[in-house]
Amino acid sequence: MEIKEFSRVMAREVSDKLGEGVQIECTEVLKNNGVVYHALTIRKQGQNVAPTIYIDHMLEKYNRGTMLMSLVDDVVGMYNQCAPAADTKVDFFDDFSVVSKHLFFKAVNYKKNEKKLENVPVKRVLDLALVPLALFEHPSLGSGTIIIENSHLDIWEITEEELWENVIENAPGFQQVKIKGIMDVLEKMTGMPAPIPGGGDELCGIYVISNKEECLGAATIFYPDVLKGLSEDFESDIFVIPSSIHECIVIPDTFLGLDVEYLRRIIHEVNVTTVADEEILSDNLYKYDRDSDRLFIVKEA
Q1: Structure confidence at residue 157 (pLDDT)
Q2: What are phi and psi of 185, to 5 degrees?
Q3: Are 152 and 235 within one domain?
Q4: According to the model, what pLDDT value does residue 201 have?
Q5: What are residue 243's phi and psi, to 5 degrees?
Q6: Which residue numbers in the chain have pLDDT < 50?
Q7: Closest by alpha carbon to 226, among 283, 163, 177, 168?
Q8: pTM score, two decimals?
Q9: Do 183 and 249 contact (CB within 8 A), yes or no?
């Protein structure tokens, strides 16, 4: 069964289960890098908040033999668990003085997300776009992130410049930068102890930069003075490898005679074979020049 037919069947069966007073819509949700997820949006009559339940993985289960009604029961259970109360209000997002305390940003590939970002006040940096976000925590709805759109600026009666002043000021404290040696990362991934006492960071010379949540943390390289501070510690310029939207790898350019073309090939191969499509940041290699305080794309030789 194809996903669109599966969506229609699931919507019909879930509707029968939930009964009257509930509207179910089959939706396609455009995610990062043009990746499309399929979902059921379930809205109670008279409410402006509607849970969205993704079903792509359920189609995989169905095609492997899981009974349809078992999947329907899963959707109904998820909906009952997250359905908002009748008196749920979301007007907290209308007050910029409240929202401004929860602002940060992520970095994404601009070309891969150009359509999705049409109505978003992004900042363009090289081949990337910095996207303003707000983290919300609601007693009924839980927590999540909201992409700031141009329509929000109209509601708040602020300019794009005022928005980004608040974003840049708030982000480093709200989503703090976290820098780890590559040996620590490998130890965490493999469960094996680092071969050199202390992780071998000084010898290795390679670091991973993200935020403390290790989610959407590649943007931290654009925090004020982060790359500048690292270059001063290294006493050299820095190569920046865009590992994913969640993190970047930084290497001093004095490190063991780096082969730049090899690094470029590795970035492309890892993106093709290892990184999830929606988490790819860029195929480019970046370099930070400490004398000019500038980040640029390393061009082919």
Answers
A1: 92
A2: -65, -45
A3: no
A4: 46
A5: -65, -45
A6: 87-88, 190, 194-203
A7: 177
A8: 0.82
A9: no
Range of the domain at 18: 3-82
Whether residues 182 and 287 fall in one domain = yes
CA distance 60 to 10: 14
Residue 243 burial (10 A CB sphere; 0-12, 13-18, 19+): buried
**DSSP annotation string for 179-206:** EEEHHHHHHHHH-PPPSSGGGGHHHH--
Let me know: does 67 contact 10? Beta carbons within 8 Å: no
Same-domain check for residues 77 and 149: no
- Containing H/E element for 214? none
CA distance 210 to 1: 40
Q: Are 279 and 244 in contact (CB under 8 A)?
A: yes
Residues 9 and 61 in one domain: yes
Question: Of 174, 202, 227, which marks where a domain is finished?
Answer: 174
Residues 106 and 37 in one domain: no
Are the beta carbons of 166 and 181 closer than 8 angstroms? no
Same domain, 190 and 218: yes
- Torsion angle of C-alpha atoms 271, 272, 276, 280, degrees rounded to 10: 40
Claim to verify: residue 45 and residue 145 sit in the same structural domain: no
- Tokens matching residue 17: 């289960």
Task: Tell which of 58, 82, 106 closes a domain.
Answer: 82
Of the candidates 235, 287, 234, 237, the one whose C-alpha atom is nearest the C-alpha of residue 260 is 287
Look up residue 120 and give its two tokens.
Answer: 């978003």
The count of domains in the chain is: 3
